[in-house]
Amino acid sequence: MSRNPYVRKMSKTTWFLTHGRYRSYILHELSSFFVAIYTGILIMGLLRLGSGPEEWAGWLEGVTSPAGIVFHLLAFAFAIIHTVSWFKVVPQAMRIQRGEDFVPGQLLVRAHYGVLAGVSVVVLILAGIA
Amino acid sequence: MSTREITLKVLRYRPEVDSKPFFQTYEKVPCEEEWVVLDALNYIKDEIDRTLSFRWSCHMFVCGSCGMVINGEPKLSCKAFLRDYGKKITVEPLANFPIERDLVVVIDDFVEKLLSVKPWVIPKVKKSLDDGAYNQTPAQLKSFKQYSMCINCLLCYSACPQYGLDNSFVGPASLALAHRYNMDSRDVGRKAREDVVASAEGIWECSFVGACSQVCPKDVDPAGAIQQIKITSAIDYVMSMVPGGK
Amino acid sequence: MAKSPKAIFWLLFAAGGTVTAFVLPVMILVTGLAPAAGLFSDALSYETMNAFVGNWLVKIILFGILSLAAWHAAHRLRVVAHDFGIRADTFVAQLAYFMAGIATVLALIALLAV
Fold first, then answer.
1. Structural domains of chain B, ranges and CATH numbers in brackets
2. The pLDDT of residue B246 is above 60
3. Chains interfacing with C (3 or more CB pairs < 8 Å)
4. Measured distance CA(B78)–CA(A42) in Å, rounded
5. Residue C1 lies in a domain
6. Model's pTM, two decimal places?
7. Phi (first) and psi of residue C35, to 5 degrees
8. Closest by Cβ to A7, choosing from B16, B98, B142
9. Which residues contact A72 (CB under 8 A, 6 or more apart)?
10. For residue C81, pLDDT beyond 90
């Protein structure tokens, strides 16, 4: 009997829609788009801060415009998706062995959330909000 | 013991007559309550259609030969209990491998990848039998034990989109096994494995979808292993660029 | 097979991913959503911001966050392009890392100018 293996090809452009775990993967990967734009906006803000009060006021106006608000709402949502997905895999990337046993993964995750809370409170205090 | 009737939709491919695979439906397959999908397939082969081909051996999640895609999910068919599914079950061969016949896939590529990472202990000094065993503490054993549980069932390769998109990728199980030996206190082969492991086709092709670890029936966590190799390899790479580094 | 220089970019990606996971949510709140919600009286006024960013420690921290965020996003966007079926990986990589390089330089210029 002759061999004639059949090769099934995966779609190179739509594969990430075919399964729940691929969809959640591509969702957190897309956070990078918002991280990139937000970083750009902040750098622009700093550049304009250095150019004087009017320039800075112009930047603030852009941030608080309807388009600015929509972008920042989306960016905030994706930042949360990024944080949650990043912390979720910490136990996989970081294995700490003490003696024979490993530090429980969930403890590492909780420690990350603890630091997140601490950092957030400090920033909010610095900004005069909390 | 109660029986129930299950409909199995099985992807068939007979290389001598078919130009492409097609679904064949086996209706009203009488199944016992405690059966797994593999039992149902064996019933079909024994009683309904003896041309149906599939691989299996141990029937107890050890041999790793009965991997299939069941209702879209890579599974060991000996571990997929019928009671966890509805009355209709779809069975396909593992994704990302060429189909040899029906549910049997060609795994030559995997075997080649596995060998390329030198999955054996490379000791610093070869001992003769008379010199006795290479000793290891329980803690040293535990550091890699999880990664040694792999049964080469290839569910991870079936779940991995990066392997599916570009099969030059060394892939999850092979890299997890490379990590298993890298972490072994008796082994000094990490540098020897790095040519393959730390190449563009090795760990760097992985984008941490994490699907491999989610489908692994042995909780090996290949995705975690790959991330850990990335960390050490990246540090190695930086050190090799620093003057005086190695 | 040779060892891949992707190692360097991955290291920046991973460092940036960790830093952004900790700081981005609250930063977006403070610099984006709070001003729009009118939560500030004068914290974002020109004088206050100038004095704040004038602090060297703040400059160093902001530079770290902004540059790592840029390299993180650049590397991940390269992977996204690949996942979307764009197979000109060398070109995409060069473009992405070039943009990250520009962002790094601009961040440095901006912070030194305040």
1. 3-105 (3.10.20.30), 108-241 (1.10.1060.10)
2. no
3. A, B
4. 55
5. no
6. 0.94
7. -60, -35
8. B98
9. A38, A63, C28, C32, C33, C36
10. yes
Q: How many domains does chain C have?
A: 1
Contact A49, A93 (CB under 8 A): no
pLDDT beneath 50: ranges in chain A = none
How far off is chain B from C49, nearest CA to CA, in Å?
A: 37
Residue with tokens 């090769």: A7
Residue B195 to residues B126, B199, C53, Cα–Cα distance (Å): 23, 6, 46
Q: What is the pLDDT of residues B153-190, one digit of tens each?
A: 999 999 999 999 999 999 999 999 999 999 999 999 99
At A14, give phi and psi (nearest 5°).
-130, 5
Of B21, B96, B224, the CB nearest to A6: B21
Whether residue C90 lies inside any domain: the answer is yes
ipTM: 0.94
Q: In this structure, are residues C86 and C93 in contact, taking their beta carbons and an 8 Å threshold?
A: no
**Separation in Å, CA of A11 to nearest CA in chain C:** 9
- Residues spanned by the domain of C28: 6-113
What's the residue count for chain B?
246
- Give the amino acid at A48: R
Over pLDDT 70: what percentage of chain C?
98
Residue C29 has pLDDT above 90, yes or no: yes
> For chain B, what percent of residues have pLDDT higher than 90?
90
**Spatial separation of the C-alpha atoms in residues B39 and B73, rounded to whole Å:** 18
Residue with tokens 């580094």: B245
Taking alpha carbons only, the member of C8, A96, C110 closest to residue B239 is C8
Q: What is the DSSP letter of B81?
A: B
**According to the model, what pLDDT value does residue A51 have?**
93
Query: Alpha-carbon distance A109 to B1, whole Å?
Result: 45
Helix (H) or strand (E) holding B105: strand B104-105
SS3 B28: strand
